[in-house]
Amino acid sequence: MLFPTLTFGLFFLVVFTAAWAARDNEWRKIILLLASWVFYGAWDGRFVALLIGSAVLNWGTAALIARTDPEALGRRKALLTWGVIANLAILGFFKYYGFFLEQLGDLLRAGGVERDLPLMQVILPVGVSFFTFQGISYVVDVYKGRVPPAGLLDITLLMSFFPHLVAGPIVRAADLVPQFQARPRLERGMVAMALCLIVWGLFKKAVIASELATGFVDPVFNDPGAHGAADLIVAAYGYAVQIYCDFSAYSDMAIGLAALLGYRFPRNFDQPYRSASLQEFWRRWHISLSSWLRDYLYIDALGGNRGGVAYICRNLAITMLLGGLWHGAKWTFVIWGGLHGLVLGAERLWREYRPQGWPGLPRWLTILFTFHIVVLGWIFFRAPTFADAAAYLAGFGRGWGALTATPLALVLIAFGLAMHFAPPRLMPAIALQLRRLPAAAAGLAVGVAILIIDAMRFEGVAPFIYYQF
Amino acid sequence: MARRDEEFPVDLPGHTVLGGHPLRWASGAIATATLFLAATNAVAIDGWAAELEPTPAVARLNAATAWWRAATDRVGLGAPRAALHTEWKKAEAAHLPGQAAAEE
């Protein structure tokens, strides 16, 4: 069930009505939980059991940790380790089983050993990376005393809540569980902003991302050998716009849908391509993942900035390599993460050892440089294999060639980049105006905007890029 | 680990209390948008119904959505969307001058 479809629209109307009709908060949460399972079951009903099992696992582990004597450090740590390993085992089995077995097979063959390995086709449950990370953060937060243990219903709803379930944002217990404690209250500004985010997300996904993907980016990435450097460069920029518009659209709609049900989700994107360093980029791109990796992997597991510069660079590299692998079991993701880790380390070294008195580069130049590092990374991220990425990059030296991008694709790419330099408070300013209107006028404005988007949208809706993660 | 308020994008600056019940306002806005789209975008509803797995119930739904589409088209409610869609298709089909020559 994809957000920008009529099926989801009807589903949401029913959920909105039922949730707000429930006077009792516990019944309200049960309604939302059942709705979330229906939403998830629309992909594959079997994995609803996995979702429930994962929630029970994390609830149980956290409850045991909270019940254990704080002095019994060994037992508490053992429970934490069990919780983290169990979550990683779920993720590892569904996401990396085939990949690691393939690598093992290659390694054995290289060593002259031929073995029949127990290969099997494992179906990847949608959103498994998101809800397992959510589960890990909850168990760690309870262990560290950052959040109190929550009830089974709250944790199951936290992990299953349909707006964020399949592609984030990764909403932590500290953010959402306190909101579950009482029946939420709507505020007119919150509703206006939610409607703006949903319409804006719909535009970014259904018009910009879909049009660019189908009309230009996919054909170039699918056959880079048939295109000259002009196409390859413009398609790389095009993919940068496409993935931003695709993923941030999902986040915007998720935040808007949750807000219409009365819940606040944290920001997940903040004009990432206006970043003047890769460190800044990661404060603006997929913020819920980057802050998760920072808090639970970089700081909690690896020690953060406690050591010297070499130690920090090592931690950055490990964090980004694992961050890359989180996206999928492919070497291209590892290289993408490695590139980011390398440049983050280089930025750190530059800050530490930059000769005194050297003038700083103008901000526009650092933005341009950072953007191109990000685009280079996207080529590996998008390419199906390392060989495809290498062929793509080799094409830059093949000669300019003819540009096959249509004027519309060029306009959409320019627009997608320009939106990063719009005033950051533009959307709230529009929402402030919308909330002053009577309900019928506001509804009419939203209806007209959706009608225009629907007239422009590409036929059919491709799944969001981040569904595969 | 509590987050700052500004990290929740749906919290607008200022807390101007406006008249009217917020839930009633939200429901009114959503209902208006839904009715407006049902009237002006019947082609999307018909297209959606046509893609459902065929069953006797879906056949009845298809007949109803086709009737609704024809009815809204008869009174011109579908015209703005159709006109905009035609213009968009023209924009999609447009090529740079050199590209047209290359394709020929």
UniProtKB/TrEMBL annotation, chain A:
It is found in: Cell membrane. GO terms for cellular component: plasma membrane. One of its GO terms (biological process) is alginic acid biosynthetic process. Its main location: membrane. GO terms for molecular function: acyltransferase activity. Keywords: Acyltransferase, Alginate biosynthesis, Cell membrane, Membrane, Transferase, Transmembrane, Transmembrane helix. It comes from Sphingomonas jatrophae. It is a multi-pass membrane protein. The chain crosses the membrane at residues 45-66, 78-99, 119-140, 152-174, 186-203, 333-350, 362-381, 401-422, 434-453. Pathway: Glycan biosynthesis; alginate biosynthesis. InterPro entries: Ac/AlaTfrase_AlgI/DltB, AlgI, MB_O-acyltransferase, MBOAT_fam. This is Probable alginate O-acetylase AlgI. Belongs to the membrane-bound acyltransferase family.
UniProtKB/TrEMBL annotation, chain B:
It comes from the Bacteria. This is Uncharacterized protein.
